[in-house]
Amino acid sequence: MTGDTKRVQELIGRMSLSEKAAQMTQIPANLLTDEEAETWAVRGIGSFLHALGKRAEKLQKAARDSRLGIPVLFGIDAVRGHALKNGATVFPSPLAMACAWDREAMEAVGRATAAEVAADGLHWTFAPLLCMARDLRWGRVDETFGESPTLTGELAAAMIRGLQGEDLKDETAILACAKHFIAYAESTGGRDSADTPVSMRMIRETFLPPYKKAVDAGCATIMTAYLPIDGVPMTAHKELLTGVLKGELGFNGFVVTDWDNVGSLVARQQYSETLRDAALAAAIAGNDMFMSTPGAYEELIALVKEGRLSETVLDEAVKRILTVKFRLGLFDDKQKPKIVDMQAHQALNARIQQEAVVMLKNNGVLPLENKKLAVIGPSVDHIHAMLGDWTYMSHPSIRSSCEIEHQITPVTPRKGLERLAAGHGLTIRYEKGCGFLREEDPIAAPDVAGYPYLEKIIKPEFQNLDTGAVLSACEGADVLVACVGDFLGQTGEYRDRADLDLSGDQQALLELMKSTGKPLVVVLVSGKPLTVPWVRENADAAVQLFNGGQTAGLALARAVTGETNAFGKLPISFAHHAGQLPVYHNQLPGWHGRRYIDMPEEPLYAFGYGLSYTSYRYGAPRLEKENGGYALITEVQNAGEADGTEIVQLYAHRPAGQRMTPVKELIDFARVPLKAGESKEVRFPVDMESLKAVRDDGSRVLEKGTYTLMAGSSSRDEDLRKVTFTI
Ligand code: GLC
């Protein structure tokens, strides 16, 4: 027995039933009065979320003065830096950061986030999100690392390593939380928490691998999704939570439910008759801590007293929670880091924001030099449209509980271009042109408690196209730059969206600008891929900027003026039309006709696709035997004039076993810096584990047959060179 285990067992032996039930309880402090919060602290609550600074300190002191003095865990959604706090480093959204395909940068982002969260006396972030965005209508695509199990797992594991550091006892180490277990983005029609008819085989083959990487990276906590898996609410899914996650994967941290999952079993999912039944189902399934269902505290106590729930179930949950608290050093009076290197964090932010810019098209109009620009559109100078979700602007209710030290002034595309203009002989004429919505648009804020601020966010966007102003702005310009996309009223939690076209008069704006006959650069600033086939056909250049960090506008300006060539690649496929979904790269073959009669076969933009100011040439890949498997070697040459970094991708097609297999799936990737003209051999050890098929009995085997490996610059067939081996 380790020291901690002994201390945990000894402590549990002294805890009362109600103290155990309190330890399993987590409540949002920003929704409690001081007295209510203090009462919970004295009762021995396990955790508060959304309390910071002085409030957290006060509550921790009250907890330490409670009968057993068990310290409280303070959690917060620091999903892209400590972004709910204005004054912290706001990194790009996870989807934007995924465009960098950069394990090392993700670990550094985790490290920086942890330092800033820990400096506020907090211990735990509800990140990274491991959901995979395969239906673009889902509201939270921006929070994902895209569509690939491999890319998601690699980047999430890197972030977890960064957040938790070498040792959880370190001052700057905080708990990570892999969420939302499991397949949360896979619900029917992209409808958040609707039914998800996926098989156990599909869960093991597609959705579980990122969690295995998270568990292997030592992730301390995992959050349960809201949604039902084939009719069984995840909160009540004992087979997946206890059998698979804790049993098969050996997860030894603790499981926390998502927001009021237990109450949802009654109120939304009509799965449980009463809150007591719901608390019983949730406890037995393997949820160790209940988020934001304060009523469940009394129900757990009653369940044990009336003999419906064994106290040993609470002991197991409390053991997991206390073990994590000991691992974190909370009982050893863990101190907050004294200083935080914000300069280094801002430099890291500048780097990852740069790598997050994706060039989709360029007929030579970029880079912009010595030109008169007309910069027009609702996204040109719009802060929350640029930042996106889970920041101090999108969650004012949580922000109100943050001590705001200082306001960092975000740099929008307009401000970024204006800052660099002189150095590149550019003049800028700015015009908003239109809002994201027409005056007559019906879009209303989802009627959801907790999101009343959305009305305020949506109201200013009802603005029709101002043709005169746009044409006058275009008049003296040599090149037109349109910035269009979406805003917080259209992307984020509770904002699933059926029509992914440019909303309001944005398309009319683009066509009006195009009608002038001048070169047109389109910058897409959005939370998720939009359906923009007109842009691909008619723009002279197109750049994608998923929700960025505070200075994303400067990163964009540096990219389009050629100051840098650090472009990223898409972690997610784009569709021509919402009706074409799903378009993700790793689908099974066999569709009769391979396309809708009114749609092309391919996605609008492919997974892994992205251009730059140079081009790369790939040699034929070859295999070498290595460690009982293979290594794939491919030569890559920078065939252009600009130094750059190529994101080399490795895909595989596996032979069918009991089940069919995807036409191709990403199995590895590498960032390869190459000077103009330089060639390098890139070596990928082939992870034979990742080629195993999942049998119906859950076993993983290398099926006999021919395996095809494909190396190249994107998932498109024309960008891949193949080699095969047979087992
Ligand atoms: C939200 C989200 C979850 C978040 C939690 C706490 O509803 O689903 O991702 O971590 O509540 O804010």
Concise structural overview:
The chain is α/β, with parallel strands linked by helices. α1 crosses α13 and α6 runs parallel beside α7. Bound molecules: alpha-D-glucopyranose (GLC).
Overall pLDDT, averaged? Answer: 95
- Main beta sheet: strand number and arrangement? 6 strands, mixed
State the helix count. Answer: 22
The class by helix and strand makeup works out as alpha/beta
Ligands, ions, cofactors = alpha-D-glucopyranose
Low-confidence stretches: none
Based on CA inertia axes, which overall geometry fits? globular
> What percent of the residues sit in helical stretches (DSSP H or I)?
25-40%
- The CATH H-level superfamily of one domain is Glycoside hydrolase family 3 C-terminal domain
Cα(first) to Cα(last) distance is 44 Å
Beta content? 15-25%
The spatial strand order of the largest sheet comes to 11-16-15-14-12-13
Using only CA atoms, what is the Rg?
26 Å
For the record, the CATH architecture of one domain stands as: 3-Layer(aba) Sandwich
Under CATH at level 1, the class of one domain stands as: Alpha Beta
In the CATH scheme, what's the topology name of one domain? Rossmann fold
State the total count of DSSP E strands: 26
